[in-house]
Amino acid sequence: MMVWLTTGIVVKQWVAVHRKHHAFPDEEGDPHSPHLAGFWSVQLGNVFHYAREARKPEVIEKYAKDIKDDAWDRYLFNHGKAANLLGLTLLCLGLGVGWGLLAGILHAIAYVFILSPSVNGLCHVFGRKNFDNTATNLQSIA
Q: Phi/psi of residue 130, each to 5°?
């Protein structure tokens, strides 16, 4: 619930993009490889790489066909924009409008452009290799 409220990520879409990424680690087909798209493209634009892939019905069907929607998904969790609005509303109710908006904006910047992309940007360019591919891992982030 918290991830949905703070990001609006639809579970089935996230699973599909994540599985496709692991099916093609840093090779043609990887939806957000810094080795293919460039480090800064992924580090600063991972959300756009993710969104492009998440909108493809064939990706969802192939990589998340085992993820079934339940009533919670159909009526609530599949509606990402509602999550963003509800999350921001709760912040404003809890902190006041000014502080709530500031907290929401800071979270969006930190999560969307720094924290989440670091996993696909920094961790795939710098760090230790665990497998026989180009991906690396940073223990401090992993």
A: -105, -20
Range of the domain at 63: 2-125
User: pLDDT tens digits, residue range 14-32?
Assistant: 999 999 998 998 889 999 9
> CA–CA distance from 78 to each of 48, 54, 68, 109 (Å)?
19, 12, 12, 23
* Token pair recorded at residue 86: 């509800």
Cα distances from 99 to residues 65, 70, 113, in angstroms, run: 41, 35, 21
pLDDT > 70? residue 142 = no
Q: Which of 139, 63, 50 is nearest to 42 (CA)?
A: 50
Q: What residue type is assigned to position 25 of the chain?
A: P
Asked if the structure places residue 90 within a domain, the reply is yes
Q: Is 33 helix (H, G, I), strand (E, B) or coil?
A: coil
